Known about the structure:
Elements (H helix, E strand, L loop, with lengths): L1 H17 L19 E7 L6 E6 L17 E6 L2 E17 L5 E10 L9 E7 L6 E6 L5 E12 L24 E2 L3 E11 L8 E11 L7 E5 L2 E2 L14 H7 L13 E4 L7 E9 L4 E5 L10 E3 L4 E5 L4 E8 L4 H5 L10 H7 L15 E11 L9 E2 L2
Parallel strand pairs: 1-20, 9-21
Antiparallel strand pairs: 1-2, 2-5, 3-4, 3-6, 4-5, 6-7, 8-10, 10-15, 11-12, 11-14, 11-19, 13-15, 16-18, 17-18, 19-20
Amino acid sequence: xxxxxNRYILVLLIAIVASFPACEKEIRLNLTDYTPKIVMNxxxxxxxxxxxxxxxxxxxxxxxxxxxxxKNASLxxxxxxxxxxxxxxxxxxxxxxxxxxxxPYLAMISVFRSTVRPKTGDKIRIEASAEGxxxxxxxxxxxxxxxxxxIDTATFFTSKKIINSNENNSYNPYDxxxxxxxxxxxxxxxxxxxxxxxxxSPGENPCFTLQLRTIISEPASLSGTVENYLYIYTNxxxxxxxNYRNNILEDLISEGTSFKGIKYPDLALFSDKLFRxxxxxxxxxxTDYYPVQITYLEYGVDPGDAIYNPHDRSIIEVLNPxxxxxxxxxxxxxxxxxxxxxxNPNTDVVGFTMFSEPGITFSNVHNGIxxxxxxxxxxxxxxxxxxxxKNRVPR
Length: 395
């Protein structure tokens, strides 16, 4: 009965949207009066050189490859009200991307770098100017890093994946018929984490990001490292719920289940509204923290007792790198930027969103466009024991 009702409401919504073109209004766009502005973006962290990207705004109809390049710009850095230096232009970056309507765009950005490193608590002001443009400025304050006081972990098993649990989307590259004595765990292995944190950031309702990653060393033949950011299951903690994407239209289409608890698969964004005395214990879970590495052996190399595929001379190893916890506080102007990760182009709702809503650009650059903010973070490590059992791999 509920499904039939939802289908009726969805059909009604589509009919309403389809009727919009019947109400036409002529809008005249005067392109000759358009005045471009200086665009300035940057994220500043303590004890690091400051890098600020500078460009200019341009009309959507301008398709030249250098439409955003701002020449002869100058940037002045102030720290705690004192002029410190004229920042030097370091390089020009070319950015390729796609907008909300999936149209490709190209932007050329001049990157300016400081020679000084700001400290926690410093008030930063950056002023930019260029001939023919109004001067702009942006201000931010380097926040105090949060503190991770304690991390408790517990292993638990589930019959289905706790994140992205659609079995049809899973891919198993390990064929038991090719590898000797290969056994796969029957259940999915997960880790529940309770992390006690504190913060002393000034201002009301500071916001935070939480990420977890493993850093894997590639085989000696490749001699590199790979950062793997883990999905975070956040349904068990109300502190994450304020940023869920739930809305009535999505609930109607997906019946309120498809994206519940998976708003930020690899980055959780939240505020301190539920903190007490600047303290809180975060409750979340992760999976896939035992990475599996396939190494191809040269002829003549003995695979030993490893899980071995004689057809392509490959062995499977289950690694146990430590899990790094990245806990970061954001200045308020960065919150809208990180919240933009909310946008998911794979949802059915996106068609309605793009059809009915204009794009919103948040800016804290006075007289210009862009975001200049600051972050301070802390990192903790969770040591992972060797994977239990012989000739086994996790699901």
